User: Which sequence fits this backbone?
C-alpha cells in the first residue's frame, strides 16, 4: 500500500505567499480570519490546499475580509523580486519607488503599461551606458515615442515595446512621476527583467510554471559549467535573458541563443543582449532570440551548452499533450511534467560531449513519476555535476538542485561526477551502480563503501515482501472526530508527534473508532495487530516505536507489521532506529517523508539467538521510556552492538556518526 502526505506550510511561509507581514499573519490567526490545520513544533501550520484556496479567494474578491489595502500588494501582484538581481544592484531602489507609485496611483498593470515601464528603463540604461546627450533628462520615453530622441540602431528593439505611440505619449503625460526615475546601467544586471516580473501577476506566473530564478542561483549554474570560448549556448526558456547575461566576459553574441513562448520576454531579452554585448549586430540578436516553442517547433541547430530554468508544472492543453506523447519518451501518464520533457528535448539538441545544465526540483532525483527521464539519462548520457540548493525560490517550498548532464552517447558512468550537497564538495572517483529508481549521490566514496558493505552481507534480509504496511486513519475532519476529552466511548489515537524512538508518549487525542465514517482507513486488523511498529510519516529521520496495545493512529503515524523469519519485531525495531539505518536513509533518500520503499531498503541482518536476546534486553528498557540522559546511554550501548552485527570498523563508525550525530534522535 502506498500513500502520500499533505504538504504543510508554516505561518511565515503562508505570509510570504500572501505578501503580508508575519505580524499581520499572527493578527489574522488571532482574529480567526485564517485557521491553522494544526500545529507543528508549537507553531500554526496550514495545508497547501488551504493556502492555494485562500489565494484564489483573495484574487477573485470572494474573501472580502482579507482584501484590504495592506494586502493590495498581493492582489495586484506587483511584488518586488529583489533576489532576481544582485544584492548590491543600484537600481533596486528605483524599481521599489516605481512599484510604490503604481500602488499609490492605482495604476492598472495592463500589458501595454508594463511595457512602457520597461521601455523607459531601457532608454535610460542605453543613454547612461553610451553617454547619450539626453542621459538623465526627464520625459525620456515620451520624447522617444514622439521621435524626438534616438539610441541609434537599437531604436527598433525599444519600439517593439510601444504598440501605440500616441497612447504611450498620453499615458506618460498623465503619469509623469512614473517616468522620472534614475535607473543605472550595471553590467550583467537584469533590471529590465526585474521590472517586468515584479509587475505581472503571481497567479499567472504559477499557471505558466514560471519561477523566476534568483541571481545567486544563476551565477552558481554558470560557474558549474566551465564554458569554453567560442562554444554555442542556448537557453530554451530564456525569459528576459538573465542566465545568458551571466555568461563569461569572453562570450560573443554570435554563439548565444534564447527561445521563449512569452513575446514580451523575447522583446526584453533582445534589449538585454544589446546592452550586454557592446555593438552586437541587430539582425543577429533578432535571429538568435525568437518567440519559439522549444518542445513543439522544429529546431535545426545543435548546441554545446543548453542552460536555464525550464517551466515546472506547466499546464499543457489537451492538444499539446497529444503532440508531446507522440514526440517524447518521457511524456507519459495523465499529467506530463514540463521539466522532464525539457530535459529530453535539451539532450536531443546537444552536440556530442555537450552539456545541459538546468535548475530543477530535487524530486527529479527520487520521485517515482520521474523514472522515465532518469532511465533516458542512463541510456546514453552521464551526469557531470549536482548541486543541492534547498528552498531556492522566494515563497516556494520546494528543495531544488542544479544538475548538469553530459551528452556522452556511451555507457553511463559516475566517475568524475562533482557533488555539492550544500555543506561539502566532493568528486566521485569510482563507478557506482545507479538505478532509475533513485539518483542518490549524497555519499562520498567512503560513505558509499559502507552502504554497499552493509547491503551485501551474507546474512542480510529486507522487509520487501516480508512486511505489511498501513496508513494511519484519515478522518477527513479532525476537528469533528478528534477530542481531547476521554469518555467511555472513545479511545486514544496517536499522531506522528507522539512517537519517539522505541516508545510512545501519552497523548490527549481520542477518537470513536467507526471506520465507516472516515475518509480513508486501513483494515482494522492492522491497527489491532498483537504487535506492530508505528513510525513518523513526515520526518527527516527514522523514528519507530513498539506497540502491543492495539493503539489506533492517524495518518501522520503509520503502521508496519514485519513478517521476517528469524527476526523478532523488537530486533527489527532496533535495526530501523539505529544510526546505520539513519545513515542509509539520509544518504540514499534525503527525504522528509518516510516511504514504504525507504523502509524496505534497510538491510536486516539475521543473527544468532544470543545476539538477538542481548539486543532485545536493551530494547525493552528503551520501550519503557527513559529520560534523555539514560536513553542516550542505552542507545549508544545498543548501537555499538548493531555496528558489530554489521561488521563496521572503527573508522567507518566515525564516518557514520559524523554524518548523523547532532540530529535530534527523538529518544525521550
Assistant:
Amino acid at each position: 500500500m502506498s500513500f502520500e502526505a499533505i504538504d504543510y506550510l508554516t505561518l511565515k511561509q503562508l505570509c510570504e505567499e500572501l505578501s503580508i507581514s508575519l505580524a499581520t499573519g499572527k493578527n489574522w490567526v488571532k482574529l480567526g480570519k485564517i485557521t491553522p490545520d494544526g500545529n507543528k513544533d508549537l507553531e500554526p501550520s496550514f495545508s497547501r490546499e488551504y493556502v492555494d484556496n485562500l489565494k484564489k479567494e483573495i484574487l477573485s474578491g470572494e474573501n472580502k475580509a482579507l482584501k484590504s489595502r495592506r494586502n493590495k500588494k498581493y492582489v495586484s501582484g506587483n511584488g518586488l523580486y529583489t533576489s532576481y538581481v544582485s544584492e548590491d544592484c543600484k537600481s533596486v531602489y528605483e524599481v521599489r519607488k516605481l512599484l510604490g507609485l503604481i500602488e499609490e496611483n492605482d495604476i492598472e498593470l495592463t500589458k501595454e503599461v508594463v511595457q512602457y515601464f520597461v521601455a523607459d528603463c531601457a532608454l535610460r540604461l542605453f543613454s547612461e551606458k553610451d553617454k547619450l546627450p539626453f542621459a538623465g533628462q526627464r520625459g525620456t520615453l515620451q520624447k522617444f515615442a514622439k521621435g524626438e530622441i534616438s539610441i541609434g540602431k537599437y531604436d527598433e528593439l525599444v519600439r517593439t515595446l510601444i504598440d501605440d505611440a500616441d497612447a504611450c505619449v498620453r499615458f506618460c503625460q498623465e503619469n509623469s512621476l512614473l517616468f522620472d526615475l534614475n535607473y543605472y546601467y550595471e553590467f550583467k544586471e537584469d533590471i529590465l527583467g526585474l521590472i517586468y516580473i515584479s509587475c505581472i501577476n503571481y497567479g499567472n506566473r504559477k499557471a505558466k510554471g514560471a519561477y523566476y530564478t534568483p541571481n545567486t542561483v544563476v551565477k552558481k549554474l554558470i560557474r558549474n559549467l566551465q564554458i569554453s570560448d567560442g562554444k554555442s549556448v542556448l537557453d530554451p526558456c530564456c525569459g528576459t535573458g538573465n542566465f545568458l547575461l551571466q555568461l563569461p566576459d569572453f562570450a560573443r553574441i554570435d554563439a548565444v541563443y534564447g527561445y521563449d513562448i512569452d513575446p514580451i520576454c523575447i522583446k526584453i531579452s533582445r534589449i538585454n543582449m544589446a546592452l550586454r554585448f557592446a555593438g552586437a549586430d541587430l539582425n543577429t540578436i533578432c535571429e538568435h532570440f525568437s518567440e519559439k516553442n522549444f518542445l513543439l517547433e522544429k529546431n535545426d541547430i545543435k548546441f554545446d551548452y543548453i542552460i536555464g530554468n525550464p517551466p515546472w508544472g506547466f499546464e499543457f492543453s489537451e492538444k499539446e499533450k497529444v503532440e508531446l506523447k507522440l514526440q517524447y519518451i518521457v511524456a507519459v501518464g495523465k499529467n506530463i511534467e514540463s521539466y522532464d520533457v525539457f530535459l529530453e528535448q535539451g539532450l536531443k539538441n546537444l552536440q556530442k560531449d555537450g552539456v545541459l545544465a538546468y535548475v530543477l526540483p530535487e524530486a527529479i532525483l527520487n520521485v517515482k513519476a520521474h523514472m522515465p527521464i532518469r532511465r533516458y539519462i542512463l541510456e546514453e548520457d552521464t551526469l557531470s555535476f549536482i548541486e543541492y540548493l534547498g528552498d531556492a525560490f522566494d515563497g516556494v517550498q520546494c528543495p531544488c538542485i542544479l544538475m548538469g548532464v553530459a551528452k556522452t552517447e556511451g555507457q553511463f558512468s559516475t566517475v568524475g561526477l562533482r557533488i555539492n550537497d550544500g555543506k561539502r564538495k566532493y568528486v566521485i572517483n569510482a563507478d557506482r551502480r545507479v538505478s532509475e529508481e533513485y539518483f542518490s549521490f549524497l555519499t562520498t566514496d567512503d560513505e558509499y563503501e559502507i552502504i554497499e558493505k552493509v547491503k551485501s552481507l551474507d546474512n542480510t534480509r529486507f522487509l520487501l515482501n516480508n512486511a505489511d504496511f498501513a496508513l494511519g486513519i484519515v478522518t477527513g475532519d479532525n476537528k469533528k472526530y478528534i477530542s481531547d476529552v476521554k469518555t467511555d466511548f472513545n479511545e486514544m489515537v496517536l499522531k506522528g508527534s507522539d512517537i519517539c524512538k522505541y516508545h510512545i508518549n501519552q497523548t490527549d487525542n481520542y477518537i470513536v473508532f467507526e471506520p465507516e465514517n472516515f475518509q480513508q482507513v486501513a483494515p482494522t486488523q492492522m491497527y489491532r495487530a498483537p504487535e506492530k511498529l508505528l513510525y513518523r510519516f513526515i520526518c527527516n529521520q527514522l523514528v519507530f516505536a513498539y506497540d502491543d496495545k492495539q493503539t489506533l493512529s492517524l495518518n501522520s503515524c503509520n503502521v508496519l507489521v514485519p513478517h521476517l523469519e528469524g527476526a523478532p519485531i523488537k530486533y527489527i525495531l532496533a535495526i530501523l532506529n539505529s544510526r546505520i539505518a539513519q545513515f542509509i536513509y539520509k544518504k540514499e533518500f534525503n527525504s522528509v517523508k518516510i516511504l514504504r520503499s525507504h523502509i524496505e531498503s534497510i538491510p536486516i541482518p539475521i543473527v544468532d539467538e544470543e545476539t538477538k536476546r542481548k539486543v532485545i534486553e536493551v530494547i525493552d528498557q528503551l520501550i519503557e521510556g527513559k529520560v534523555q540522559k539514560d536513553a542516550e546511554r542505552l542507545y549508544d550501548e545498543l548501537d555499538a552492538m548493531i555496528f558489530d552485527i554489521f561488521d563496521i570498523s572503527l573508522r567507518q563508525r566515525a564516518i557514520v556518526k559524523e554524518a548523523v550525530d547532532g540530529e535530534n534522535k527523538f529518544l525521550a
